[in-house]
Design goal:
UDP-glucose 4-epimerase; two-stranded parallel ribbon; seven-stranded parallel β-sheet; about 325 residues; EC 5.1.3.2; Rossmann fold; single chain; alpha/beta; UDP-galactose 4-epimerase, domain 1; isomerase; UDP_G4E
Amino acid sequence: MTVLITGGAGYIGSHIVRAFRLAGLDCIIVDDFSSGHREFVPDDCVVIDSSILDTKILAKAMVEHEVEAVVHLAGFKYAGVSVQRPLHTYEQNVQGTVSLLQAMHEADVDKIVFSSSAAVYGTPDVDIVTEATATAPESPYGETKLIGEWLMRDAARAHPLHHTSLRYFNVVGSATPELYDSSPHNLFPLVIEALLEDRTPRIYGDDYPTADGTCVRDYIHVADLADAHVVAAQKLLAGTELHPVYNLGSGDGVSVRQIMTAVADATGIAFEPEIAARREGDPARIVASGELAARDLNWAMRHTVADMVTSAWQARNLDR
């Protein structure tokens, strides 16, 4: 059986492709390489170089390669930038998902795992986020992810569509040094690049109502995330009906200060982070329960914070 993975050349997508292949599942990739990396794609993997906005190309690829399920990651993923580029974000994330669902319908493909986001929750007023926590996205990016979930729900009312959405938080680390996070907006690459360029990493605010005064977040290893996508797809392919949404969370949290300490330990580079003013809109704490995903998707935090930092550091050093 073959699975189509949109955005399979990106940091997360390439790890998911790797996990599917390790599980013995064939996959093809659709990616326009606007942010993905060609070197992340295995040489023997079929690649459709296209935007997901091209419905005809998607439907043709699904039919020609006898696709039975889709894992949908492609989209514009920068929440902060989406505020400045709302129309682009809606085009890529909403129109793109409509195009993909239309192509699936035309090709008689009725199973999809959607890579959603914790951004759908906005700034929650609870200590631990669950799937029942109210959604209140605060950026066009978060809004488009929530709309993507709605699109699948509504499409499933009109014709057979078996689907689930995986909401996750801060994805870090590397399963293999050849695949790394190159985002200019994520904490790990920002800290690592600062050290590689002999700059001091920065913490935005140390006066939050947390144990050490810095923001607490849910960090999950990209390999654990990738495995959850594989299990979700396998369950759908086996005919198991899944919950519409799952949080992939730790049930605990790590502060930005703790991350900085872990980076210093892993790299052997002693530094005292620079303290800058708070950034507007940064909540003190966002942590999710992964209990539902543990029950249905064998979700678990199999990597420690030290694993996350060490693997991220090794990957970026290899790249350089």
